[in-house]
Automatic annotation (TrEMBL):
Organism placement in taxonomy: Bacteria, Pseudomonadati, Pseudomonadota, Alphaproteobacteria, Hyphomicrobiales
Coiled coil: none
UniProt keywords, alphabetically: Membrane, Transmembrane, Transmembrane helix
Record field: transmembrane: 12-31, 38-57, 663-686
Protein's UniProt keywords contain Cell inner membrane: no
Domain of life: Bacteria
Protein name, entry field: Glutamine amidotransferase domain-containing protein
Source organism of the structure: Ancylobacter amanitiformis
Length: 690
């Protein structure tokens, strides 16, 4: 219980000061003139001024508050390397025992866990955790803080004032002082690249705790496929050129060979995600003659902003030549040599739409088309009655790559094309709108070209199982054959129409090797806090997948059927970084959070990063391995500015309390004040009356 004196003037303070000055002058004048009773008169004036000042006796009931010591335990991923976790756990247990002495003196000990899990987006943030753990504690109650960490902290404040309290901060560092580690540091990382062109990535191999200048073997992978094995010098900058092969994310990994005795190989690999951008998909469309379905192809391809279409229609074949002078014709000559010899490799897809030999395209150019496909190009033949004529493109060198031969007959009767069993699994036709019912909910066709010796994959058939859409891989390229020329009925909305846009667009992009339309594909996608693994296959089952975490550990994942041709599984993404999935043949990559987490950039333990802020706060820093019990002695400090020694750490013990009750007794209020004033006046009168 504390007692005090408080004032609550009955008049404004300037007035009270003025009255005090006047009273002082009067008292001095009376005393100087040696007037009888001068002292008592001065005392009466003082009592009057005190009455106007309205003094009160105060009584405070205070409750002492505990001082707080915070212990922040680093549980980030870098603490899992070596024996750091065991060292930290032992240090924490010993620290609890030694801090019990402070608890006996009224201190409160708070243990705060920091880091761990998939939340380490921006590295180890111990000071953020400390601020959150002390958010409800006034700064004057904080006696100090302790960090149990490996020293790799990424939110160190610039000044000690940013801590928010005036107390020592100590650090006890796990790990060993002579640790070795090798890491790959990226120096230049392009974000975008044109498909088909190369991009340059800059990097440097850095060895910590080992001599510089070592020759290091590097493995460069793009989407899991090895594309280079250069040898570089540690500590020296290096570059690697990587071709961008497809649109979307191209994940490039640069992995260095391990260093003998290094702490961990997890940071021997760095990754870059380069978004591939297609300049334009160049398509050559050759229509053999004007027909009602020609505009369907043209409109479809022209509506795609990513497609650069070159379209020719043969309006004047050689048999229609007459004596009209060339300079009087409005037609453009078909540039066969330029298209099919000089620039054929510039096209991503060639389409023959009801094209028949008319002497326009020499046979040698069909040989060029065959080589173009075998070397990675794409050919689509939209066949009609031309396919069974004497001028059929099958009667050219294209016979070697077309997936079926015409019989010379065609079936002309209404039928609804249906997906085959393979078509229900193939990405081009899987879940095609309208295919979920039998018969399908789309318009019928009235003609199909009869073929024989079909190879490849029939994804859509007609009456008696006759193929309508055939897909085939030829060498490095692809070929598609449409055996009905009535797809335009779907575009015109006849009898409800059909999904011609979905079908023909998927078909075109499959021919141009769109990754999402590959028959055999392994894919990983980060969705929320989970990773989804999908396997597209034409088979009846999908093999188990081996998952490799960013830290290098592996697990086996079994996939279940999601729909025909698609198998799927989901698991939690509990670690930041690059995840890998492989089924022995295919590989998929996905990144969770930053590609190269700060947590794994530098992993050797250190006392250098924390030392400036520790010393500025008056604290100390020690290594667990250098102390007999892993932690220094704990000393309560009541006064002084030194809080650390060679083997001890101190904490600023505070005398802090909170007011729980307050009592006031006005001295000059009521009867007591009247008695005091009357006593003063009576004393002055009594002296005057002598």
């Amino acid at each position: 219980m504390n007692f005090g004196l408080a004032f609550d003037p009955l008049v404004p303070l300037p007035w009270l000061i003025g009255l005090a000055v006047v009273a002082a002058l009067v008292a001095l004048l009376v005393i100087a003139s040696r007037t009888r009773g001068a002292v008592l008169r001065a005392l009466a004036l003082v009592l009057a001024l005190l009455a106007l000042a309205n003094p009160s006796l105060t009584r405070e009931e205070r409750e002492p508050l505990s001082t707080v010591v915070a212990v922040v335990v680093d549980k980030s991923a870098s603490q899992d390397f070596g024996d750091r976790t065991q060292m930290t756990q032992a240090a924490r247990a010993e620290l609890e025992t030694r801090l019990a002495r402070l608890k006996e003196q009224g201190a409160e000990i708070r243990f705060i866990d920091a880091g761990g899990g998939a939340g380490e987006v921006d590295g180890t943030r111990l000071f953020t955790a400390l601020s959150a753990g002390l958010a409800d504690v006034p700064p004057e109650r904080v006696a100090g803080a302790i960090f149990l960490t490996d020293g790799r902290v990424h939110d160190i404040p610039a000044t000690v004032a940013a801590l928010g309290f005036h107390a020592p901060v100590h650090a006890i560092v796990s790990g060993q002082p002579n640790e070795r580690d090798r890491r790959v540091a990226l120096t230049s990382t392009p974000r975008f690249g044109i498909v088909g062109q190369t991009q340059t990535i800059g990097y440097r191999v850095e060895d910590e705790g080992a001599p510089a200048g070592a020759r290091v073997s590097i493995t460069v992978r793009r989407d899991g496929e090895v594309v280079g094995r250069p040898i570089v010098t540690a500590g020296q900058p290096a570059n690697v050129d990587v071709e961008i092969t497809h649109a979307g994310a191209n994940i490039v990994e640069i992995e260095a060979a391990g260093l003998e005795g290094e702490l961990t190989p997890v940071n021997n690999r760095a990754a870059v995600s380069i978004d591939g951008v297609r300049d334009k998909l160049r398509v050559l469309l050759v229509s053999g003659e004007p027909h009602v379905g020609e505009r369907t192809w043209r409109n479809l391809l022209k509506s795609d902003a990513n497609v650069d279409l070159v379209h020719f229609t043969i309006l004047r074949p050689p048999e229609k030549q007459d004596g009209t002078p060339i300079n009087e014709l409005s037609l453009i000559a078909f540039p066969t040599r330029e298209l099919f010899q000089q620039k054929i490799k510039d096209f991503d897809l060639i389409i023959f739409d009801r094209y028949a030999q008319q002497g326009v395209l020499p046979m040698i150019y069909f040989d060029n088309i065959v080589r173009y496909v075998e070397e990675g190009g794409a050919l689509l033949v939209a066949a009609g009655t031309d396919f069974i004529s004497d001028g059929s493109v099958y009667n050219t060198p294209l016979e070697a790559i077309l997936p079926a031969a015409p019989t010379g007959q065609m079936t002309e009767s209404p039928f609804r094309a249906a997906l085959t069993e393979a078509g229900r699994r193939h990405p081009v036709t899987r879940n095609l709108p309208g295919s979920e019912t039998s018969p399908p909910r789309w318009a019928p066709f009235f003609r199909v070209i009869d073929t024989q010796g079909a190879r490849g994959t029939s994804v859509m058939d007609g009456p008696n199982g006759k193929p309508v859409v055939l897909l085939d891989h030829v060498g490095e390229g692809r070929v598609a054959l449409l055996l009905s020329d009535h797809f335009w009925l779907w575009a015109r909305g006849f009898d409800g129409g059909g999904p011609y846009i979905d079908l023909l667009r998927r078909l075109s992009h499959w021919l141009m090797k769109e990754p999402d339309l590959e028959e055999e594909r392994l894919k990983m996608v980060a969705h929320g806090g989970d990773i989804v693994v999908e396997r597209q296959t034409m088979g009846d089952a999908a093999p188990p997948v081996t998952i490799t975490t960013p830290t290098g550990t592996t697990r086996t994942l079994n996939l279940t059927v999601a729909e025909p041709g698609l198998f799927r599984a989901t698991f939690p993404a509990d670690t930041l970084g690059l995840w890998r999935a492989s089924d022995g043949k295919l590989t998929a990559l996905v990144n969770v959070g930053p590609l190269n987490p700060r947590e794994f950039a530098e992993v050797t333990s250190t006392t250098d990063t924390l030392r400036p802020i520790i010393e500025a706060s008056g604290g100390g820093i020690w290594r667990m391995s250098a102390l007999p019990d892993g932690v220094p002695r704990v000393i309560p400090v009541r006064s002084g500015e030194r809080f650390a020694g060679e083997d001890w750490m101190g904490f600023a013990m505070r005398d802090v309390s909170v007011v729980r009750g307050l009592g006031l007794f006005p001295i000059f209020a009521g009867f007591s004040g009247l008695l005091i004033l009357l006593a003063g006046v009576a004393a002055a009168w009594a002296r005057e009356g002598r």
